[in-house]
Amino acid sequence: MSTNPSAEETAPYGTGPAGNAPAKPVRKVRTHHLRDMKQRGEKITMLTSYDMYSAQIFDEAGIDLLLVGDSASNNVLGNETSLPVTVDELLPLTRAVSRSVKRAMVVGDLPFGSYQASPEQGYLTAVRFMKEAGAHCVKLEGGAEMAPVIKKLTEGGIPVIAHIGFTPQSEHVLGGYRVQGRGDTSDRIIDDAKAVQEAGAFAVVMEMVPGEVADQITKELDIPTIGIGAGPDCDGQVLVWQDAFGMRSGKMARFVKQYVDVKSVLTEGAEAYIADVKGSTFPGPEHTF
Ligand code: KIV
Which of 17, 20, 49, 278 shows a CA-CA span of 20 to 30 A to 65? Predict the structure, then answer.
């Protein structure tokens, strides 16, 4: 058997091809790369993606992780919240993303009701995301109470990202969209973070947690923390792409930064197309056989 390292093992770790640069071998993002990034203080980047083109664009831009979030429920499928989305609805979206990336780690998101009943239920659901949809790992919501599920999955060969703080699937238990871990309740979030690490999670998403608490957790954990509304001191950040790139307008959470205005570009394009067709200026001779 050859002992030569594979091209992937020897390739430099870095962002994927950009612009017209000659194609370098692309090294897939692995769990140990994220741990190394934390250790050397290099920030980790994560965006949601639910389809082929956004996945290709974000992957080529150099994103580290793509989350096919249950937020597809209210960003793709027209629901008001993430609660109604099913495993069968998320699998094809996850498959589209995993087929479209070369470098980014693809995270399948276990939806509400698909893992909370027992570790066995969680394992069987997670296996579907890995086998049928090509996910590289899964994310699930919950802290200490989810430790047995996280343990079962990791022992069964499935890398897990835990999601603590505000967990949208528990919106009705938590009393709505609220910052978690303020004041006296910070201990619970810190205990959750330690419990999910102990159970085997390789990273933890922290949503709507006070910046100081997120900073303390980030310092105390060995695994990377990825924040959304958890301040600047997490090891990485995640945003829903439709929020970050202005695919939608309306009320936005305070933690969102909008980088570009895709909605205006699409609106302009649609209005120009409608005007052209109504005015019989499209198709022109150059578009006609
Ligand atoms: O589903 C999702 O988009 C998420 C992020 C908010 C982290 O869980």
Answer: 20
Listing DSSP states for 105-170 in one string gives EEEEEPPTTSSSS-HHHHHHHHHHHHHTT--SEEEEE-SGGGHHHHHHHHHTT--EEEEEES-GGG
Gap from CA of 222 to ligand 1 centroid (Å): 22
Q: Name every residue whose Cβ is closer than 8 Å to that of residue 101 and which is 6 or more positions away in sequence.
A: 55, 56, 59, 66
Q: What is the DSSP letter of 205?
A: E
**CA atoms within 13 A of residue 109's CA, in its CB half-sphere:** 29
From the candidates 207, 220, 268, 286, which is the catalytic residue?
207
Ligand 1 mean position, distance from CA 69 (Å): 5
Cβ(232)–Cβ(211) under 8 Å?
yes
Neighbours of 286 (CB within 10 A): 5
pTM over 0.90: yes
The alpha carbon torsion through 194, 200, 205, 207 (nearest 10 deg) reads -50
The pLDDT tens digits of the residues spanning 251-278 come to: 999 999 999 999 999 999 999 999 999 9
Return the amino acid letter for 134: G
Read off φ and ψ for residue 250, nearest 5 degrees: 95, -170
Ligand 1 within 6 A of CB of 149 = no
Distance CA 139, CA 202 (A): 10
Strand pairing partners for 140?
Answer: 162
Q: Is there a contact between 196 and 146 (Cβ–Cβ < 8 Å)?
A: yes
Q: Is 239 exposed, middle or buried (0-12, 13-18, 19+ CB in 10 A)?
A: buried
Tens-place pLDDT, residues 116-167: 999 999 999 999 999 999 999 999 999 999 999 999 999 999 999 999 999 9
